[in-house]
Amino acid sequence: MDLFFGASTNASREQQSAKVRVEERPAKTPNASVNAPTDTSPTRRARPQQGDQTHKEDRRRSQQKDQSHSEERRRPQHDDRKRRRRLEEHRDERHTLKKLPTSESSRLSPRNSDLVNANRERVGSLPPSPRPRKSPVRAERKKPASSVAVSSLGQEIERCASVPVQASNVRRQKALVSAMPSPVDDREADSDEPVAVVSSVDAVRQSESQYEDYFRWQDGEDRLQTIELHLPASGATESYSLLMPKSFDRESESRDEYLPVNDLISTVRAIALYLVDSSDFRHKVCGDKENGILRQLERARNRLNGRDFVGAVHEFNRLLDLERVSSNIGPVFDKSHIPSDLAIHIVEQTYNRVVAPTVNMLRQYKAFSNNVYGEILPTLVSEFIERAGISHDTTFIDLGCGIGNVVLQVAAQTGCFSCGIEIMKVPARFARRQAQEFEQRMRLYKLNHGAVQVWQGDFCESTDVQRMLPRADVVLVNNYAFDSALNQTLLQMFLDLKEGTKIISLKPFVTPDHKISARNIYSPESILTVRRYQYWSQCVSWTDSGGEYFVQTVDRSRLNEFLAQRGML
Question: Given pLDDT bands bounded at 50, 70 and 90, which one contains residue 196?
Fold first, then answer.
């Protein structure tokens, strides 16, 4: 049974294999030979036609993919070749353009035209073709500034005053400050060319948007905004504005707000009292309390009557011109000592034109430091002059002069050599500009004054201060905000002062009860004597209340006496 089953199984397997071999034989084509050999090997199998086509498509896709990768790898090299070829063409083009005539090169593109010009300049064979440029601005001939106010300065300030209102105040103030003339000290002021004066109109123009009409004008009247006032110098006039600050309070006038009408009235009074040697002129201007010109100006100001105010100014100009013809123009006081009222008026005018329009810039300092800014007002300065006995042959120096008001007032009021130094840039710049404006104003009033010098720097390190201290007769130090270290440094500097030099300060460098002993014979306090004085309100800018100041005098006699008694000399 098992043998039969195995025999039948083997027979069926042979039949199946034979059948497979028959199916695998290739079909005969019409052109095939009958006797062509056939492969009957069971191990060689033919692929179906559909599978052959699929294999070809896969191979083609693979070749395309390989080719794309190859192109991507070669692309940078291809770009480099294109770039090198472009550069070579450009170099050949440049070589050719060198030899082109002007008519041909002018027809080239702008890029090639620039190339032609560059090569012509390098080779030098042809002149470069002209390039389009802006029409040149013809520089105006520089006119000498007159001794009267006017000028390029006023035009420059007007230009800077046109900075848009949207601009920040700091930017506007910096533009206005930079428009003013560059300051020079006496060593730089040897030139005979006068410096332009800042007029009242120029001062108002710096912040004209903050001003309005002062007077009320009737219908049909000309609404004047400026008026000319004649001054003592020959042919000198100044333009005064007839406007007032919008924030002006008639009851309490602020020093930082400039009111041109009051300035004009004060100038008329000063000229009549001090600068015209004629009793008749003085009576017509100031003497007649009811109908004098000064009274007319004050009445018109109080009533806001512009027509009467302008008429009074014209009458004053007429009378002053008559006195000039009669040669009566001249001071009615000793030229070596100007009255304090007149000196303060000129310093105030200088301040209102140079500092007041941009006074906010003075508040840019570090609080609670040695650089805290504060001003000593003119009333207290006049008291300093009297206490220290400053005269025309005195040498005065202000250590920390700020904007230089004290330096200018001392030079005007006494005629002495007056100098100062300030460490902060903004106040020092104002001080030097005020010195220029002050000098020109004194010329307009035909007044002499002492030489003025202002430096910018640290007085502890300045060579100018080291050079001036041994010659100084009076030294002013506003040490109200100085710390103890700086005061000690100043004490060491005072050792260079000569005998009798006076040091004015708002805090004492030596106590009134200081006694010389063996322990302090080498300290600077031992060569100083001190006296204390009181000042009243409205004397300093940082407080309305009164205070005290001190006058120290260099006196080595007490120290020498102490040393002689102990045989130490």
Answer: low
